[in-house]
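Bug: token stream looks shifted between consecutive jobs. Job 1:
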Amino acid sequence: MNKENTPLKKTPNDHSIMDTIKDRWSPRVFADIPVSQTDLQSLFEAGRWAASSNNFQPWNIVWGVKGSKSYERIMNHLVEFNQSWAVNAPVLMLGVINTKTPDGKDNYHALHDLGQFTANMALQAHSMGIAIHQMAGVDFEAAKKEFEFPEEYHVATAIAVGYYGGDKNNLNEDLQGAETSPRVRKKQDEFIFNGNFVKRESL
């Protein structure tokens, strides 16, 4: 299984970007193919080499494969909407940050650094024909308690992982259209400023 088998969505990019970025997307259904330990270690290794402020590397990943206790423990803390489709994923993860620096100060960049870890992981995954879908819908405090993280840690995101190519008919009908609809992003002039910030009206 590799990226040649990845179902592509229309990405109406306005400027040239590399295919790994253009073609990556976040499905809610996945092929019925296990993600091996070797594959997961490649994803984690890609994340490991992400940049971080002062090289503090404040990220932590909890993971479980479908059928395992860790998977069910993660699933139990997703909101109901995410549970409805994440059950399709062969692997579930939690992205957790240490909100303190090694000397105990607030690390205001930790969430940004976890984002870089996850972006690296997503691009590595896409190159292997694997998709990841990040979720904000998690009971953060309950998940932190479940996995026994100390107070200074924060469960920032959940992540579903699996190979592209799932059958959209395995989703609720109201979610099926999102699997084939074109990708949408704001235009650059809505968020890029060569100087002072100027408020833009939402489209």
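Job 2, same session, no restart:
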Amino acid sequence: MGSIWTGDRVSLRGIEPEDWRAFQHIDADTSDMRAVDVIHPPRSAEGYRRWAAEQAVKEPVGDEFQLAVHSRADDVLVGALSTTGTDQRAGRFGYGIGIGREHQRRGYATEAVVLLLRYMFGERRYHKCSVGVHAFNEASLALHRALGFEEEGRLREHEFFAGRHHDVVVLGMTTDEFADRHGFGAVAESGVD
């Protein structure tokens, strides 16, 4: 028996209270924090413990949720991903992903995104996924292009940090484009006749 949330390298799971140390460690690298979102003020160990405990019991709001990305080989949390901007009427959503620096370049982000997209397109009936990537983040742009995302535009001087404004590249993928490249797996694999 398999799980839609498990790949060869990673599994996606809920955040557990004991994950607080891993998130604290990931947030310690300012460039990682900026690549994922923005730089936040330092948080105490107790703040991380409380945040992880809250995340562990937090119910999804519609189709917006956050998941831990867990390395199957190393049995450690390597990052997180979350859905954003879900719009069931229009059939679109976005997501964000962050993998800790020491776990990058191992295929974790690629597999985690494919697992998420397979769920959102194949189980939740969304039609399109859009993501915004900082224009300077070449690794993330390469990841999304390799996954099959198409560049749809650029938001000029859209985000401010490090003393100036930066462009954001908008990329998108439809369910048909995903299916052509990655597929949804055989129905028999899920136990459905």
